[in-house]
């Protein structure tokens, strides 16, 4: 089977594949030829088909998820105004972290973020996850106040405060799409 793909060449040492819906992206070292990229795609045909199937299955499942009503979203936002700042303050004390504003939104793709101005943003849908997931996202964003990257030092800081981070981050990766799907197309 021939797959159409986008070839992105950069300063890297290996070739990799990324499947985004129907789009296939091949990332490769600058010296890679079109023929080498074609061969790499052909060699990984089974993986591409499997990955596309998983994405299609996930989309179908997400479409079947019951959507939150406007009233439910408002109630969630009200609860988030109380709960999330409390969790941020709790962990900020432990970490001796100083932050600016906290903004709460219903977002489609992000659970949290930290700006260069030390403002924190959180998704109100975190309240639909286990409390440990909320805490793991709070700690993750607070650690960005010290390290604005995802380096080894950043994760050392995360694990020092929240040793179970990997477990709850994995939970969020496995279940987060279904939770975000509950917000619908807002």
From TrEMBL:
Residues 13-63, 74-175 form the YgjP-like metallopeptidase domain. It comes from the Bacteria. Gene3D superfamilies: Metalloproteases ('zincins'), catalytic domain (3.30.2010.10). InterPro entries: UTP_pyrophosphatase-like, YgjP-like_metallopeptidase. CDD domains: M48_yhfN_like. This is DUF45 domain-containing protein. It comes from Ruminococcus difficilis. The lineage of its organism: Bacteria, Bacillati, Bacillota, Clostridia, Eubacteriales.
């Amino acid at each position: 089977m021939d797959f159409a793909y986008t070839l992105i060449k950069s300063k890297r040492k290996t070739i990799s594949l990324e499947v985004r819906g129907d789009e296939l992206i091949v990332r490769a070292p600058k010296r890679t030829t079109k023929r080498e990229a074609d061969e790499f795609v052909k060699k990984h045909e089974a993986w591409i088909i499997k990955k596309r199937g998983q994405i299609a299955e996930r989309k179908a499942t997400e479409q079947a998820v019951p959507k939150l009503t406007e009233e439910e979203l408002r109630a969630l936002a009200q609860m988030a105004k109380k709960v999330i700042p409390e969790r941020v303050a709790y962990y900020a004390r432990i970490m001796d972290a100083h932050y600016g504003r906290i903004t709460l939104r219903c977002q489609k793709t992000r659970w949290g973020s930290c700006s260069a101005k030390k403002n924190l943003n959180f998704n109100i849908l975190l309240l639909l996850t286990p409390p440990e997931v909320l805490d793991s996202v709070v700690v993750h964003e607070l650690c960005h106040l010290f390290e604005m990257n995802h380096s080894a030092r950043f994760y050392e800081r995360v694990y020092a405060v929240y040793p179970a981070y990997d477990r709850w981050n994995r939970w969020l990766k496995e279940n987060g799409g279904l939770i975000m799907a509950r917000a619908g197309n807002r």
